[in-house]
Amino acid sequence: MAQPPPYIELYESGELERRAARLEARLEECDICPRRCGANRLKNETGSCNAGKLVAVASVCAHHGEEPVLSGSRGSGTIFFGNCNMRCVYCQNHQISQDPDRQRSNQVSPSRLANRMLYLQNELNCHNINLVSPTHYIPQILQAIFEAVPQGLRLPLVYNTNAYDDVETLAELEGVISIYLPDLKYADSNLAARLSDVPHYVPTARAAIKEMYRQTGELELDEDDIAVSGLIIRHLILPNDLAGSEASVKWIAGELSRSVPISLMAQYTPRHRALEVPLLSRSINAAEYRRVINLLDVLGMENGWLQDDSSQDYYLPDFNREDHPFERG
Description:
The chain has one domain: Alpha-Beta Barrel (TIM Barrel), CATH 3.20.20. It is of the alpha/beta class and 329 residues long. The strands form two sheets. It has an eight-stranded mixed β-sheet with strand order 3-1-2-4-5-6-8-7. It has a three-stranded parallel β-sheet with strand order 9-10-11, with no helix packed on it. β5 (157-161), α8 (167-171) and β6 form a beta-alpha-beta unit. The chain is built from 13 helices and eleven strands. This is Radical SAM protein. It comes from Candidatus Dehalogenimonas loeffleri. Residues 79-192 form the Radical SAM core domain. Keywords: Iron, Iron-sulfur, Metal-binding, S-adenosyl-L-methionine.
């Protein structure tokens, strides 16, 4: 029988409730993410992430297109949160991340979010709860977990993030999150500021990922090869080496471990405002993809996943679909 996730023990000890209360108090002068914008979100002032007191839930579904250790046979129970603390000009989820007016109609309470988690577990029978772009809603998410546990929530939680996370905030998630899934986007903070409107991305994301690795360590799988704990790092290759892939991969190998799984993504295609940036106005080519794969081989980094040539079409969502953003009609 599978071990219950550690947040059950945190709930039973009262620690989960205390953490949720501490995080909620921080919303009064919001410092949840590295922007530390100071908005009073308890009074529904919107922060720099365009989020207020309630949670924008854009989509809830069983996602079969995540890494195999997450999707398995029954799918990863994915909750796509609206709004974001970054402003990537090429964001594939721009329909929900950068359209705050639309996301107001998707706002729910933590209690309703708890119900969505239980739906993924009990009705869709997913392997895990996959929280996509959760950074700006961490206090509400912990409250939802606190409410869902006595109703039977038992699935491991996946924290699926852009890695622009605050280490102090992440510390409150120790023992709550089983699997961290950060996307290491850049190796140059100046490019991050230009393309994603965030300062100091590189040291911030690297510090956050180190904290994630400290909490969960190496990836562990169950008898069915489904992830139960650990770190997986995603890296989206951008054209013209704008992502600084070589520097990022070498940092992972040198500062974390060569055994950390890397999910190497070839799915980039110009979306949102990418066509306004000439260096981003095309998909990556085979040579760019092969160069990063060869680097992984040279460094002896054998754990992880590669996307095939169809990824540019297959992995792009459409959140105008009411049922499932990744399933074509």
